Automatic annotation (TrEMBL):
Residue ranges annotated for the Leucine-rich repeat-containing N-terminal plant-type domain, each copy included: 54-91
Keyword Cytoplasm included in the entry's annotation: no
GO cellular component terms attached to this protein's record: membrane
Primary localization: membrane
Membrane topology reported for the UniProt record: Single-pass type I membrane protein
Superkingdom of the source species: Eukaryota
Gene3D superfamilies recorded: Ribonuclease Inhibitor
Domain called Disease resistance R13L4/SHOC-2-like LRR: residue spans: 124-211
UniProt-recorded name of the protein: Receptor-like protein 12
Pfam families with a match to the protein in the record: LRR_14 (PF23598), LRRNT_2 (PF08263)
Compartments it resides in: Membrane
């Protein structure tokens, strides 16, 4: 005679079915997190990649406005990770550009090399795309008496700004007072005219200020 299924045997058959259903639901929810309603992939890694592409394009545009007689920026080429470019520093965790150090590597007392290695041209507004930039050094270059661009006051993540001995002129923009996180501001050795904007005196985080 054939024995019928006992309750214990029935439970043993049901448990795997419930487990499979649970695993299926988890996989479904995970897939839902990755696919947005428009049918495209929605991944944090993809967002970071897109942001870094924007930063790289911004740096290439910035380079396009500069004169670089000694090819200091020869490593700035498409197809290479911008974090590996000369003078560019990135956050190790996020990969975002946080540092741009383009100061002249030769001191003024080595006058011939100092003049030869100076960058010139325009400080272009594409830097605004570097949303995480906290360190900017363009010192000891040659910007032909141009004023500090007003957009520099919108680089609100800056903690360090060095534009000293960069052959800048005109008036100092009061927009620099918007840099509430700035700790070091060096504008010495330029040919500015007019008064120092009062807004600079209200920068609560400022620890170092050089104007001469």
């Amino acid at each position: 005679p054939q024995l019928g299924s006992t309750p214990a045997m029935a439970n043993q058959q049901v448990i795997p079915t419930k487990l499979l259903l649970s695993v299926g639901l988890v996989c479904f929810h995970l897939l839902g997190d990755l696919i947005n309603p428009c049918g495209g992939l929605h991944s944090p890694a993809a967002g970071v990649h897109l942001s870094r592409e924007t930063e790289r394009e911004a740096l290439l545009q910035f380079k396009g406005g500069l004169r670089d007689p000694t090819s200091r920026l020869s490593s700035w080429v498409p197809g290479i990770d911008c974090c590996r470019w000369s003078g560019v520093g990135c956050d190790n965790r996020t990969g975002h550009v946080v540092e741009l150090d383009l100061r002249n590597p030769h001191p003024p007392n080595d006058l011939d090399m100092y003049k030869r290695w100076r960058l010139g041209g325009e400080i272009g507004p594409s830097l605004l795309e570097l949303k995480h930039l906290s360190y900017l050094d363009l010192s000891m270059n040659h910007f032909g008496g141009r004023p500090i661009p007003q957009f520099v006051g919108s680089l609100v993540q800056l903690r360090y700004l060095n534009l000293s001995h960069a052959d800048l002129g005109g008036t100092i923009p009061h927009h620099l007072g918007n840099l509430s996180k700035l700790q070091t501001l060096d504008l010495g050795g330029n040919e500015f005219v007019g008064h120092i904007p009062s807004a600079i005196g209200t920068m609560s985080s400022l620890k170092v200020l050089r104007m001469s």
